[in-house]
Amino acid sequence: MNKQLKAVITGLCLSLMSSVAIADKPETVTVGFLNLVNAQLVTKSLGLVQKEMPGVEIKYIKVGGGGDMLRAIAGKQVDFGGLGNPPAAIGVTRGLPIQGIMVLNMLDYVEALAVRTSAGIKNLRDLKGKTIAAPFGSTTHYLLLNALADEGIDPASMKIVDLRPNDIALAWSRGDIDAAWFWEPALGRVLKDDGHLFNTSGLMAARGYPTWDVGVVMNEFAEKYPDYVTKFLKAECAGIDFWLNNPAETAKIIAKELELSLDDATRMMKGTEMVPCDKQLTQQYMGTTEDNGGFVDTLVSTGNFLYEQKRLPAAASEKKMSDFIHPEYLESIIK
Amino acid sequence: MVTHWLKRGNNQRFAISCGSVLAMLGAWVFVTETGLANPLFLPGPKAIYLAFIDVLFDGYQGSTLIEHVGTSLYRILLAFLLACLVGIPLGISMGMSKTAHAIFNPFIEFYRPLPPLGLYTLLVMWLGIGESSKLALLFLAGLPGIIIATVQAVKDINPTFVLATKSLGASRMELIREVYLPGAGPTILTGMRISLGFVYTVLVAAEIVAATAGIGWMIWDAAKFLLSDIVIMGLIILGLTGIALDAVMRFIGYALMPWTRATRQFSKD
Known about the structure:
By secondary structure, chain A is α/β, with parallel strands linked by helices.
């Protein structure tokens, strides 16, 4: 056997041994975070995940919206991610290998229906014949269609167009649209330009349509490194506690992370509800391993809604949705 | 004339093409039927067919397949027609006159390599979210190919023909009609065919912003909901319309420029 071959084989054996030896610890952890205002920005900025996982390389990837996050998950480009309830219902129904492990945020007036003040819109019926924008497939598109359905208004009586938040602000400033349901920070620009809040995601939550973002982990990662899922949650919970206890400091972090003014950051923070981790296992949110919480109900009704919209090939299954929610990691921290 | 045009092709090459397409279909059926491919990312031909039937009769998000295809073809053809109406005269004048070339060339060379999405943001700012910004993007995608091909075609014309025609007392318009257009025709047609391809490549980009119908929008929307059967079905339809339009253009060339037919019979490969 020549020397080179020996060296190669020894090298292979060594690398195999070392990979077995450190199998309890991932080399890198990739966190895909949504481009919105929640405590994940605090966790990221303070490096809390890194503190829980010494010796592991932490990578953060900013993801524009739910659709992109679904693609990132399908392409196995992230270990942890976040999804609003419509993309989560889509991902679960289509069988993406993910588990829901925590409440990232509940959406209040950080997402809202803005209408043009000079257009004189007094109620939803006045939107007839007007052009309304929403990012299709998002939480706000879901709420817009539900709000119209609740009042018995045919969505076909107006022109609903698919625009991304920044394009909405652009189309608004040109006068192309008269109403839009979307989110901060682009929402703030519209409100300063002849716009006012007409409905908010918080108001819709009170009417039985809560919208939220759920933190997810890839099945493969959770099976291989269950301890690291717990570590990740500890870090995120610490971030949420920091948000709740130090609002002034948090606003500074948000302003820096999203390049906003301090006033804008403060307003957006107030429009987002953070749920402390010890409350996340209650009936309202994740529930427990024995008993499903409200998240499962929301996922089922969202899935059924998307099925009626022909955006999902099958109606939502309660079992699939309940199997998706994994409260056990959070339970192991709270107890 | 149509049958003659169709017959001129080589039967053997056609058979080989059919064979390679069938082999591709076979591989597709194989990987999907044996479970080698995840149906979420690559559904089988049957799922694509079912999606086709469903969208054909029930529609996708408020428009039937015919309406989606019609909307997109209308945008493509109108933008392409405008690109030809602007590009061919501009190309001829740039090919004939060095001054015209010097005036217009910097702009064409500058915007040609710009990514369509970057350009699109600006177009939406100027023209709004309606039809005009979409048409403008498609138009701008098609324009440079036509201009560049036309300029080259005009420059390649043997100057002896030009001088001979001029010495016989032809006016500038007669020169264009009798020498430049017939001489440059085949190359212009090739430029048009390539340009139509460029128009197709930006169709999805053009229909991302505020469209509610169009085959590009359908593909984009379905991708958000992981409806890969509709995505693939849309791409196949888009590809087939492209092939059909290209065939139409080649036929028009064959009918309008009979002098290009003779050379074909002698070419062998």
